[in-house]
């Protein structure tokens, strides 16, 4: 069977029934798999007729649809075969050959985009700032706004450069070609990309003709592309390593762990001073939780706020502020029941005063927020987390090297609340557990210890033979829907909706060739998914041109 046949061969099974057209008492998570296959089949059809640009874009849409909501699998042999084949077909001849055990001096970090809020941007910046033994450059495949000054400064100070690929005339294949050529000017590549980013997969389809390729598994609970084009996968915690092997089919020898890097915490004010800045009295026990709003999704009619009502009624000197979700409607009754001492706040990049004021760091639930716990631990704040699920779903739990041991874990709600009760009541225990957390985070998540982990990843990538992308998945290897764990918990925690997948597809219109763009645009217009006339008109403009105009760049 040829590479093209293998890439485009559909699954030897009928696709799941599209339940969106049928009334149902509850959403069916299989709908996500059906929506994914809808765009996979579009990609395969475009590939078969030689429209490789459209095939690559539809493949990215399929990957995006598979991420949220979870579509019941963590790796797609069909998408990876198709994208790698596009990459090989569109590659230009080269004399470049990977050196055996190359010395790594200059790294290229490939990132979809850097955003003002998020652990991925923070880790990238700290990585570059702390790894002073290497030069670092940055390639952005989908940046929609100006590059953050903090990130650009870190790159330039290391001696590297920033490259914005998606402002070059053309589309994803052209950007993948440019990324491939750019990679060959560096000693190794580290991907910090979104799981649906198809550009690196096309760019890195021939690993033997490229420097070593590493992939940071930052979205360890999500589907992502790149298993078959990454020489080394860098996981941030124990359970991510396990899931990479068992569900993503990463070869164990290519699977390593390196903790999240955080900056050593430096207080700018005492806890009491920070409390005063927030309008809190010195004797208030301030509990803080910080994460993206989606990590606080209510479960079975019970909200994150509901869990803490009786605890706060018992301790009238305690408050719980939650930075990230804003003011959810279903929190209002719980907040009112304790006279507003539970408070939901919107996301903000200016979090320092909150962390400096906190007496207790409370993890998000039902999905953990390890980065905020690490930042809290660095300031000597005790940590409390909870996980009530089966061991197969431990991807939802704290199992990160530096914060697992010092965290007070609740395996039941009663145990979790008992930990909080003890900490609120006992200042000495707060100090003891806070210092334990501080020392552990310093050891695992800051230099020089962190540099030892990452140097081992570099060395492994240099030593291993290039991954065999063309034969990584068999021609008959396909992804199928699974509903065990952790899939079941992913369905429950993040939810699964039956909204039109065109809401996702419309965001890719500017990457499609003009005829295909117009056809999909008409489909989206007919479905009524455009929210405004302005959005409707912008969708007809090529992405590269829109971003150049937006940023005031010259072609």
What does the model show?
The chain has 23 helices and 13 strands. The strands form two sheets. The chain has a seven-stranded parallel β-sheet with strand order 3-2-1-4-5-6-7, with helices on both faces. Helix 15 links the parallel strand 11 and strand 12. Helix 2 (30-48) runs parallel beside helix 4, helix 3 (52-67) packs antiparallel against helix 4 and helix 5 (119-130) runs parallel beside helix 6. The model is unreliable at 1-25 (pLDDT under 50). By secondary structure, it is an alpha/beta fold. It has helices spanning 3-8, 30-48, 52-67, 77-89, 119-130, 149-158, 172-183, 199-203, 238-246, 271-277, 304-307, 309-314, 332-337, 352-357, 370-378, 413-425, 427-445, 449-463, 487-494, 502-505, 514-527, 533-538, 543-551; strands spanning 106-111, 135-140, 162-164, 188-191, 213-217, 232-235, 255-257, 285-290, 318-324, 342-346, 360-362, 383-386, 408-410.
Task: Name some characteristics of this structure.
11% strand, globular, six-stranded parallel β-sheet, alpha/beta, 555 residues, 13 strands, seven-stranded parallel β-sheet, disordered N terminus
């Amino acid at each position: 069977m040829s590479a093209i046949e293998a890439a485009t061969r559909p699954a030897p099974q009928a696709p799941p029934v599209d339940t969106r057209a049928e009334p149902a008492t509850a959403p069916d998570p299989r709908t996500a798999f059906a929506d994914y296959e809808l765009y996979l089949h579009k990609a395969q059809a475009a590939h078969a007729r030689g429209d490789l640009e459209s095939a690559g874009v539809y493949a990215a849409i399929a990957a995006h649809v598979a991420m949220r909501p979870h579509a019941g699998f963590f790796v797609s042999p069909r998408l990876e075969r198709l994208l790698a084949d596009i990459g090989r077909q569109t590659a230009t001849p080269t004399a470049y050959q990977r050196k055996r055990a190359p010395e790594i001096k200059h790294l290229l970090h490939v990132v979809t985009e850097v955003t003002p809020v998020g652990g991925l941007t923070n880790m990238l910046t700290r990585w570059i700032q702390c790894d002073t033994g290497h030069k670092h450059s940055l390639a952005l495949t989908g940046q929609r706004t100006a590059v953050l000054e903090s990130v650009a400064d870190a790159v330039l100070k290391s001696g590297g450069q920033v490259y914005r690929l998606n402002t070059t005339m053309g589309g994803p294949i052209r950007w993948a070609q440019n990324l491939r050529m750019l990679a060959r000017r560096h000693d190794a590549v580290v991907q910090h990309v979104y799981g649906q980013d198809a550009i690196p997969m096309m760019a890195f389809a021939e690993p033997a003709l490229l420097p070593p390729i590493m992939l940071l598994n930052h979205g360890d609970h999500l589907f992502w592309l790149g298993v078959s084009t990454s020489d080394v996968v860098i996981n941030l915690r124990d359970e991510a390593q396990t899931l990479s092997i068992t569900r993503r089919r990463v070869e164990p020898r290519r699977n390593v762990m390196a903790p999240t890097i955080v900056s050593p915490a430096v207080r700018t004010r005492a806890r009491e001073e920070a409390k005063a800045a927030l309008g809190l009295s010195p004797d208030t026990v301030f509990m803080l939780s910080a994460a993206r709003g989606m990590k606080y999704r209510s479960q079975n009619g019970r909200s994150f706020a509901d869990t803490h009502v009786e605890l706060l009624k018992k301790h009238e000197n305690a408050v719980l502020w939650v930075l990230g979700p804003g003011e959810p409607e279903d929190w209002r009754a719980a907040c009112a029941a304790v006279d507003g001492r539970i408070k939901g706040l919107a996301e903000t990049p200016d979090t320092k005063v909150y962390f400096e004021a906190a007496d207790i760091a409370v993890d998000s639930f039902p999905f953990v927020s390890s980065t905020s716990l690490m930042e809290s631990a660095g300031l000597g704040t005790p940590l409390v987390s909870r996980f009530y699920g089966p061991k197969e779903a431990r991807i939802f739990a704290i199992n990160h090297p530096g914060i697992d041991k010092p965290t007070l874990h609740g395996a039941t709600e009663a145990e979790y609340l008992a930990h909080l009760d003890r900490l609120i009541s006992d200042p000495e225990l707060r100090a003891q557990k806070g210092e334990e957390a501080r020392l552990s985070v310093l050891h695992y998540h800051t230099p020089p210890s962190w540099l030892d982990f990452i140097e081992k990843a570099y060395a492994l990538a240099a030593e291993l033979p290039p991954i065999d992308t063309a034969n990584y998945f068999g021609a008959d290897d396909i992804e199928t829907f699974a509903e065990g764990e952790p899939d079941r918990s992913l369905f429950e925690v993040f939810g699964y909706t039956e909204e039109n997948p065109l809401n996702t597809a419309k965001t890719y219109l500017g990457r499609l060739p003009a005829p295909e763009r117009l056809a999909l645009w008409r489909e989206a217009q007919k479905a009524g998914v455009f929210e405004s006339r302005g959005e409707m008109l912008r969708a007809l403009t090529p992405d590269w041109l829109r971003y150049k105009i937006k940023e005031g760049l010259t072609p």
